């Protein structure tokens, strides 16, 4: 059904003028009544379609509003988002992700909302998710992995977002350990990974991605304006949210598939390539001491590796890192 509708749109978009019902029914090998029914469904999804007797159909305008259907058309994935659920407004896509998981929905199910009332960050923090301005989505994964490897999925997701930005702009995205996507020191995106595990095996992961896309500066809450930004603010142009979601899902699937086949090494390399302040000196304070360290990279368990001035190396999990400002190198 969906792929027929996608083919229908492709046919109509290829033609500048009208395409007759007969032509469409011949090309798609469906009845003219079926063509008419599909047209009605397209209208429901926000397509403006003109039907003229003896001439046929013509698309006047495509929807600017996202729907589950429009998201799936043009989605070049094999498994990710093949089940995709879209809402105008939810409290949190994470919550829905967990519900879908307990209903047994498959690996790769995606939930997307235009707005979230109670978008959540890590440690019960709040994630600002204004309507139609960003990507607020959760991906349900059922990886065949032990729980200790779950942090790798967060790191993987961060590299996917960085790769997407690099693919579409000449900006320099960076990943601040463990999972903030920064552009020019400001947070454009955050990732929240929540897991259910049993007997050394992950049952499922709900991986939440929040990405600020089309906010202007005055649409970022004042209290975080100094440290948050959007793709639009950084690139100077409006983004097509639907295409951006599709690009993220395509890159996510590719990256995930090669991770499953080849292991963590490539993700580690990519993460370190984008890693904020990797190779630079920062101040670290733990309960025990405060010290200067050079950040070296990440570990397979998701820890950050740092070296002090005597050459001793340490793995950091939740140490307070004073990231400093202005240390950005293109
Ligand atoms: P985090 O704990 O790293 O970041 C939360 C902190 O970031 C907040 O305390 C605030 O300072 C700042 N912040 C809040 N909103 C924004 C924003 N829109 N842009 C930049 N900074 C902000 C990061 O948590 C994980 C966020 C995941 C969000 C996704 S959206 C889809 C899914 N559903 C859901 O409820 N959460 C995830």
Automatic annotation (TrEMBL):
Biotin binds at residues 116, 120-122, 187. It catalyses: biotin + L-lysyl-[protein] + ATP = N(6)-biotinyl-L-lysyl-[protein] + AMP + diphosphate + H(+). Keywords: ATP-binding, Biotin, DNA-binding, Ligase, Nucleotide-binding, Repressor, Transcription, Transcription regulation. One of its GO terms (cellular component) is cytoplasm. The keyword Coiled coil does not apply. One of its GO terms (biological process) is protein lipoylation. The keyword Protease does not apply. CDD domains: BPL (cd16442), HTH_ARSR (cd00090). GO terms for molecular function: ATP binding; biotin--[biotin carboxyl-carrier protein] ligase activity; DNA binding; transferase activity. Residues 85-260 form the BPL/LPL catalytic domain. Residues 21-40 bind DNA. Its EC number is 6.3.4.15. Belongs to the biotin--protein ligase family. Acts both as a biotin--[acetyl-CoA-carboxylase] ligase and a repressor. This is Bifunctional ligase/repressor BirA. It comes from Halobacillus halophilus (strain ATCC 35676 / DSM 2266 / JCM 20832 / KCTC 3685 / LMG 17431 / NBRC 102448 / NCIMB 2269) (Sporosarcina halophila).
